[in-house]
Design a protein that fits this description.
280 residues, 92% helix, mainly alpha
């Protein structure tokens, strides 16, 4: 009876301790939530800064996830190809296949990006050239309209001198103030372009690294999950992760395929009807 009584006391103590621990955790969580809400602007700035710094890394991971199906197919193909060479060990076949598959996947990604740029930039340049060609005619029309206004109103003719003086003062002020602002804007634009190029290069490096170490990442993540949670909970988490990966992967593949088909059909339709900007 004493042993049963002690066991019951221990169970009650464990229950009270668990209840107290949960209460403390919930209370701490509520305090953290209140502090975050009270300092929402500061927290938002910190989050934006962190996202800005980590954006190349996130971009690289996203690119790796997008081209991962291509990498998997190529790796299987190269494994079947190199496994026929008897001089190569299984480890060598695995490493060579992975190297070739990652290289071709990255070349495919870069080629796709270059192709998109070649599709957009010529159309943009053509639109800019058309705008430059149209500008003189628009200027002539504006002069004709101004001439008609001058002829229709003698008072306006008398005020032309004042208008010219005002324009001269405005141009002088522009050279003193706005020109420096424009120069600084150009410098900032150059800095933005250089930053984009650097971020894109970092994203490509992260993409390659993620493709190389993807199996190691998955293995380490699995070990961490099983170390933190009970086996049944960890298995549920892994099942959800696998299902999410399957659904999301099929969604991306379907979107890319659908967008490609729609783009090709739209291009052919607009080309047949001689509509402008078909390629764009």
């Amino acid at each position: 009876m004493d042993k049963k009584h002690e066991e019951m006391n221990m169970q009650d103590g464990n229950k009270r301790f668990a209840l107290t621990l949960r209460t403390v955790i919930v209370f701490a969580f509520c305090i953290c939530a209140i502090l975050l809400l009270s300092q929402f602007d500061a927290v938002g700035k910190v989050i934006n800064s962190a996202v800005s710094v980590l954006s190349p890394v996130l971009t690289g991971v996203i690119l790796a996830y997008i081209i991962n199906p291509i990498d998997v197919v190529l790796e299987r193909m190269f494994k079947r190809l190199f496994s026929k060479i008897k001089k190569l060990s299984p480890t060598a076949v695995k490493n060579i296949s992975r190297g070739f598959s990652i290289t071709l996947s990255m070349l495919f990604l870069i080629a796709a990006i270059v192709l998109i740029l070649f599709l957009i930039l010529p159309e943009f340049w053509e639109s800019l050239v058309k705008l430059v060609d149209i500008a003189p005619s628009l200027f002539d029309k504006a002069l004709i309209h101004l001439d008609e206004l001058i002829k229709a109103d003698d008072e306006l003719m008398n005020n032309i001198g004042n208008v010219i003086d005002t324009i001269g003062v405005s141009v002088t002020n522009w050279f003193k103030t706005e020109l420096m602002t424009a120069v600084s804007g150009v410098v900032e634009s150059v800095i933005v372009v250089v930053g984009f190029v650097v971020d894109f290069f970092i994203a490509l490096v992260v993409c390659v690294y993620a493709l190389i170490e993807k199996r190691s990442f998955i293995s380490q993540s699995t070990k961490i999950i099983f170390a933190l949670f009970k086996p049944n909970v960890a298995n549920d988490i892994m099942d959800v992760a696998r299902y999410s990966h399957t659904v999301f992967g099929k969604y991306i593949t379907g979107k890319l395929l659908t967008s490609t088909v729609v783009g090709v059909v739209t291009f052919l339709f607009m080309s047949v009807l001689n509509m402008p900007y078909a390629l764009l």
